[in-house]
Write a structure and sequence with these properties.
- The protein has 198 residues and is of the alpha/beta class.
- It folds into two domains: 49 residues, RecR Domain 1 (Helicase, Ruva Protein, domain 3, Orthogonal Bundle); 119 residues, Dna Topoisomerase Vi A Subunit, Chain: A, domain 2 (3-Layer(aba) Sandwich), CATH 3.40.1360.10.
- The radius of gyration is 20 Å and the shape is elongated.
- It has a five-stranded mixed sheet. It has a two-stranded antiparallel sheet with strand order 1-2.
- 22% of the residues are buried.
- It contains eight helices and seven strands.
- A hairpin with a 6-residue loop joins strand 1 and strand 2.
Length: 198
């Protein structure tokens, strides 16, 4: 019912999380009201952001430089690394201002049914960082994939001097970290528990 260009835009907008057909239609029609300068600016930002965004060479967080601001920050505690599945989790924890250590982003979770194995994730760079730390906090979601990834990570850390802890969850099983509120995330950090060595 719409011209081809609008249909294509609607189809692409629907790929975004939380955007259904009606919302995509509303957004596409709203963009028709924008002036040419605003549309060009929007289009340029879409084209350029993928080229400008990189992954931190140390922790894997999305950034616009080779090393992210958290890894560069001399005020951060270098003795503790919180391991998360993706950059969105880091941003969620940073909003709480309750964690002052460093992060490590795996770039996903082990999910054998989707063909995602440990070799597909950012474990190698984490192993290189282990000789500089005292504690690893495993902050993967309380899902089957999150637990499998946490168990695998725990098995990798053989140094007895490194304490391995898992977030203490007040989160329901199956919950995703990125949708948790700040208080729940604060409590999860405070109530983390030690992992038993296998």
């Amino acid at each position: 019912m719409y011209p081809k260009g609008i249909n294509e835009l609607i189809k692409n907008l629907k790929k975004l999380p939380g955007i259904g057909l009606k919302t995509a239609e509303r957004l596409a029609l709203e963009l028709l009201n924008w002036d040419e300068e605003a549309l060009n600016s929007f289009g340029e930002s879409l084209k350029s952001f993928k080229d400008e965004i990189k992954y931190c060479e140390i922790c894997g967080l999305i950034t616009d430089s080779n090393i992210c601001n958290i890894c560069k920050d001399p005020k951060r505690n270098n003795d503790v690394i919180m391991v998360v599945s993706d950059s969105k989790d880091v941003f969620s924890f940073e909003k709480t201002s309750s964690f002052n250590g460093k992060y490590h982003v795996l770039g996903g979770l082990i999910n054998l049914s989707k063909g995602i194995e440990p070799k597909d994730l950012n474990f190698d760079n984490l192993i290189k960082r282990l000789n500089q730390i005292n504690e690893i906090i495993i902050a993967t979601s309380a899902t089957v994939e999150g637990e499998l990834t946490a168990q695998y990570l725990n098995s990798l850390i053989v140094d007895e001097n490194i304490q391995v802890s898992r977030l203490g969850y007040g989160l329901p099983v199956g919950a995703d970290l990125k949708y948790a509120d700040q208080l729940t995330l604060i409590k999860a950090i405070e109530n983390r528990k030690k992992y038993k060595k296998i």
